[in-house]
C-alpha cells in the first residue's frame, strides 16, 4: 500500500538531504548533483515513480558520459518520502548545471525531474544564472513558481497531470520495446540453424522464392505493425478482449500489405502477423505504467479470450459459404483448425511444448540457437502443421511428424541429424511454417520474461 507522508517527514528528509549535500561538498570539493522527483501530494513513492526515477538516473548517467564528466561518487535512497540521488561529479559546476537543465527540459517526463547542482565555489546553481527561463507549470504551462506561490491548481490537478505524463511516456516507450522484441523474435527464428525445410542461415529450405534477406526485409517492414498491435492492446485494455482482436485484424491487414510491398509479393510472415501480432496486443492489454506483465500464462490465455469468438465465426462462415483456401478446405474435409484453432485455445503448443522445451534445453547448457532447434523439432513432433499438409498432403505431414518424433526420442538432437532431416524435407518439398511461427512466439515470450 502506498504511504502518505506527513509534513514533518518531508521536512526531516529535506534537512537530511541538505546535510548530506554539505558533507559531500566538503569531502570531495567537487560539484554535487542532487536528484529527486517533483511530485505533488502526500504520496511521494510508488512503483511507477520508482520507474520514473530510474529512467532519470539512466538519462543522467548517459548525459554525463557523453559530456565526459566522471562520476566520482554516487548514492541513492528509496524512502517513503521519495527516491533521492546524490552524485559527485568531476567537472565545472556551470557545465554540470547546463547538462541538468537540458535533461529537465528535454521532454514531458523531464518536467518531473528536480536536478539541483551545488559546487564548493558558487554554491547552488540556478537556471537564471545560465540565462534559462523558469520552469513551467505542469497544468497550465505558465511560470511554475507563480502558480505554486498562489496555489492556482489543486493537488488533484497536479497529480492528474503527473499521472498523464507518466502514462504517456511509458506507454510509448513500452510500445517500442515490445515491438522491437517481436521483430527480434522473428530475426532469431529465421537465423536459427538448422531448421528442417525452412529458410535459415544455411539454405532456403523448401522455398524457391525467399531467402534470409527476404525475411530481414519483411521483419523491418513489420516493426511498425507490432508496435501498433501493442498500442491497440493498451488503448482497449478496459474494453472487452474481443474488441481488441477486432481492431487488431484491421491493423493486421495493413501489416500484411507492408510485408508484401517489402518482399515483392512473397508471403514470409503472414502467419506471424496473425499470431505474434495477437500476442503483442495481449501484452498491451496487460500493460500498466509500471511495466509490462511477465505472466506468460495470463498472456497466452488472453490470446484465446481475444480471438475465440472471431475464430468460431470464421469457421461458421466456412461451413456456410464453402472453402476458398487450402486451410479452409482442410477444416471442412478433416476438421483441422490450424493456427486459428491454436490461437483460439491460447496457444497451448507454445505453453506446453515450446517454452518448456526451450527452458529445459537452456538449463542443460544449450545456446539459445541450439535450444531453438530442439523447440522446432519438438513442435514438429506434436503439432499438426497445415503448412506441411498444403505441400505434401496428410501423408507428407504424418511422415514429417514421425521423423521428428523419432529424432526427439533422444535427449537432444544432434546438428548432424537435424541437417539430415533438413535435406529429407527439402527433397519432399515440405516446410513446417506453422511450427516456425510457434518458435518465434516462444522466443518472444522468453525475451519478455527476461526484461
Characterize the structure shown:
The chain is of the alpha+beta class and 451 residues long. The chain has two domains: 7-136, Alpha-Beta Plaits (2-Layer Sandwich); 169-450, Orthogonal Bundle (Triphosphoribosyl-dephospho-CoA protein), CATH 1.10.4200.10. 64% of the residues lie in helices and 8% in strands. The protein contains 16 helices and five strands. It has a five-stranded antiparallel sheet with strand order 2-3-1-4-5, sandwiched between helices. Helix 2 packs across helix 3 and helix 12 runs antiparallel to helix 13. The radius of gyration is 28 Å and the shape is elongated.
Topology, pairings included?
Elements: H1 7-28, E1 32-37, H2 47-66, E2 70-79, E3 82-90, H3 93-105, E4 113-119, E5 123-124, H4 144-150, H5 155-191, H6 212-235, H7 241-263, H8 270-285, H9 296-321, H10 326-334, H11 338-344, H12 348-363, H13 368-382, H14 386-408, H15 415-427, H16 433-450
Antiparallel strand pairs: 1-3, 1-4, 2-3, 4-5
Helix pairs in contact: 2-3, 5-6, 5-8, 5-16, 6-7, 6-8, 7-8, 7-9, 8-9, 8-16, 9-11, 12-13, 12-16, 13-14, 13-16, 14-15
Amino acid at each position: 500500500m502506498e504511504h502518505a507522508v506527513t509534513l514533518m517527514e518531508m521536512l526531516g528528509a529535506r534537512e537530511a538531504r541538505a546535510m548530506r549535500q554539505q558533507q559531500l561538498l566538503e569531502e570531495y570539493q567537487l560539484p554535487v548533483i542532487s536528484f529527486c522527483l517533483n511530485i505533488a501530494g502526500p504520496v511521494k513513492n510508488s512503483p511507477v515513480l520508482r520507474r520514473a526515477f530510474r529512467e532519470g538516473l539512466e538519462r543522467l548517467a548517459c548525459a554525463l558520459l557523453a559530456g565526459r564528466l566522471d562520476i566520482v561518487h554516487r548514492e541513492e535512497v528509496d524512502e517513503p518520502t521519495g527516491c533521492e540521488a546524490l552524485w559527485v561529479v568531476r567537472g565545472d559546476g556551470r557545465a554540470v548545471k547546463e547538462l541538468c537543465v537540458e535533461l529537465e527540459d528535454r521532454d514531458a517526463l523531464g518536467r518531473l525531474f528536480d536536478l539541483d547542482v551545488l559546487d564548493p565555489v558558487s554554491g547552488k546553481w540556478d537556471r537564471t544564472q545560465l540565462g534559462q527561463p523558469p520552469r513551467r507549470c505542469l497544468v497550465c504551462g505558465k511560470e511554475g513558481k507563480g502558480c505554486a506561490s498562489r496555489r492556482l491548481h489543486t493537488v488533484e490537478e497536479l497529480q492528474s497531470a503527473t499521472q498523464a505524463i507518466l502514462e504517456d511516456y511509458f506507454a510509448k516507450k513500452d510500445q517500442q520495446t515490445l515491438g522491437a522484441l517481436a521483430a527480434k523474435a522473428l530475426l532469431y527464428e529465421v537465423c536459427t540453424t538448422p531448421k528442417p525445410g525452412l529458410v535459415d542461415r544455411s539454405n532456403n529450405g523448401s522455398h524457391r522464392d525467399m531467402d534470409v534477406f527476404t525475411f530481414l526485409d519483411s521483419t523491418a517492414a513489420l516493426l511498425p505493425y507490432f508496435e501498433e498491435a501493442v498500442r491497440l492492446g493498451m488503448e482497449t485494455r478496459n474494453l472487452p478482449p474481443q474488441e481488441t482482436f477486432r481492431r487488431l485484424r484491421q491493423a493486421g491487414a495493413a501489416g500484411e500489405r507492408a510485408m508484401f510491398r517489402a518482399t515483392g509479393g512473397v508471403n514470409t510472415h503472414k502467419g506471424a502477423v496473425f499470431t505474434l501480432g495477437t500476442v503483442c496486443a495481449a501484452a498491451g492489454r496487460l500493460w500498466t505504467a509500471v511495466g509490462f506483465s511477465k505472466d506468460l500464462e495470463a498472456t497466452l490465455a488472453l490470446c484465446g479470450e481475444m480471438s475465440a469468438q472471431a475464430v468460431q465465426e470464421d469457421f461458421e462462415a466456412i461451413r456456410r459459404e464453402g472453402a476458398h483456401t487450402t486451410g479452409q478446405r482442410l477444416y471442412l474435409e478433416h476438421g483441422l483448425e490450424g493456427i486459428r484453432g491454436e490461437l483460439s485455445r491460447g496457444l497451448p503448443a507454445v505453453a506446453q511444448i515450446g517454452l518448456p522445451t526451450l527452458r529445459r534445453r537452456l538449463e542443460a547448457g544449450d545456446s539459445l540457437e541450439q535450444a531453438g532447434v530442439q523447440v522446432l523439432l519438438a513442435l514438429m513432433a506434436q503439432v499438426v502443421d497445415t503448412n506441411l499438409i498444403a505441400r505434401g498432403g496428410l501423408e507428407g505431414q504424418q511422415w514429417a511428424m514421425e521423423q521428428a518424433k523419432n529424432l526427439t526420442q533422444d535427449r537432444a538432437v544432434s546438428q548432424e541429424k537435424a541437417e539430415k532431416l533438413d535435406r529429407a524435407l527439402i527433397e519432399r518439398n515440405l516446410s513446417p511454417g506453422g511450427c516456425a511461427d510457434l518458435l518465434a512466439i516462444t522466443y518472444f515470450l522468453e525475451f519478455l520474461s527476461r526484461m
